[in-house]
């Protein structure tokens, strides 16, 4: 499930967002969460990952792990900042490639 970047205004101002599905057989466990956090750290944008009502910092592996996202879960990537579009696209690519897991 992929949507085009959507610009949305939320509590923290305007952000770009895109929905992705966790396709890994074992969900977003330590290895893919680490790859996600490491990739997110390469951007100046503030990046959040949302599952249901829980929103975490994508640059923190521990935060990402607290989501306990399993196979088939739909997550939302939200980003704000100058390179937000690039950040969302890069993280979406990780999900599509199943983190090379």
UniProtKB/TrEMBL annotation:
Q: Which CDD domains match?
A: PTS-HPr_like (cd00367)
Look up the domain of life of the source: Bacteria
Question: InterPro entries from the entry?
Answer: HPr, HPr-like, HPr-like_sf, PTS_HPr_Ser_P_site
Biological process GO terms, please?
phosphoenolpyruvate-dependent sugar phosphotransferase system
Q: Which residues form the HPr domain?
A: 15-101
Query: What keywords appear on the UniProt entry?
Result: Cytoplasm, Phosphotransferase system
Q: Where in the cell is it found?
A: Cytoplasm
Q: Name one GO cellular component term.
A: cytoplasm
Q: Which family does it belong to?
A: Belongs to the HPr family.
The name this protein carries in UniProt is HPr family phosphocarrier protein
């Amino acid at each position: 499930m992929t949507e085009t970047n959507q610009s949305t205004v939320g509590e923290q101002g305007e952000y770009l967002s895109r929905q992705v599905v966790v396709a890994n057989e074992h969900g977003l466990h330590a290895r893919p969460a680490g790859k996600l956090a490491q990739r997110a750290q390469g951007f100046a944008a503030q990046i959040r990952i949302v599952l249901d009502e829980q929103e975490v910092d994508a640059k923190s592996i521990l935060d990402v792990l607290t989501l306990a996202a399993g196979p088939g879960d739909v997550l939302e990537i939200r980003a704000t900042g100058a390179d937000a579009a690039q950040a969302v696209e890069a993280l979406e690519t990780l999900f599509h490639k199943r983190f090379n897991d």
